[in-house]
Amino acid sequence: MFNLTKSEKGVIVFLAAGFLLGCGLIYFQKINSKFCLSASTGKRNTNSPVISPAKKNFVLKSEILSKGVNINEAGEEELVQLPGIGHVLAGRIIDYREHSGYFDKLDDIKKIPGIADKKFERIKEYLTLE
């Protein structure tokens, strides 16, 4: 079919092997990002561990929730870590604080539209007033 010399076949095999090796390296880097090379130096970055965005969010969320969220001082980023609280409800909590003052007791958060008894039960263990 193809009348190739032995050296031409060798070149094709070499190029195919290089292509497959390159694809394998790209795949390996995608699945194991801690071995990625730095774009500027070409060396592996060993100073800080590579944490995926999902894992980073989980670490942040568990750290915030273990300390508790002070509803009298927390910003939007801390409030959205609470189960069932998104950016809209976090904004409502902050607006309530700015217009009505601090919360005197945890139950006062139920005055916010969108936070009823069921949602309050889900988040009350993570809330603090201090």
Question: What distinguishing features does this structure have?
Answer:
about 130 residues, about 5% strand, mainly alpha, 5 helices, rod-shaped, two-stranded parallel sheet
Most strands sheet: 2 strands, parallel
Q: Looking across the biggest beta sheet, what order are the strands in?
A: 1-2
Provide the residue-averaged pLDDT: 80
How much of the sequence lies in strands comes to under 5%
List SSEs in N-to-C order: HHEHHHE
Number of strands: 2
Kindly state the percentage of residues in helix: 40-55%
Can you walk me through this structure?
With 130 residues, the protein is mainly alpha-helical. The protein has helices at 6-31, 53-67, 76-79, 87-100, 117-123, and strands at 69-70, 127-128. Strands 1-2 form a two-stranded parallel sheet. The longest helix has 26 residues, at 6-31. The radius of gyration is 27 Å and the shape is rod-shaped. The termini are far apart. The relative contact order is 0.09. The model has no long low-confidence stretch (mean pLDDT 80).
Concise summary:
The protein is mainly alpha-helical and 130 residues long. It has helices at 6-31, 53-67, 76-79, 87-100, 117-123; strands spanning 69-70, 127-128. The longest helix is centred in the N-terminal third of the chain and has 26 residues, at 6-31.
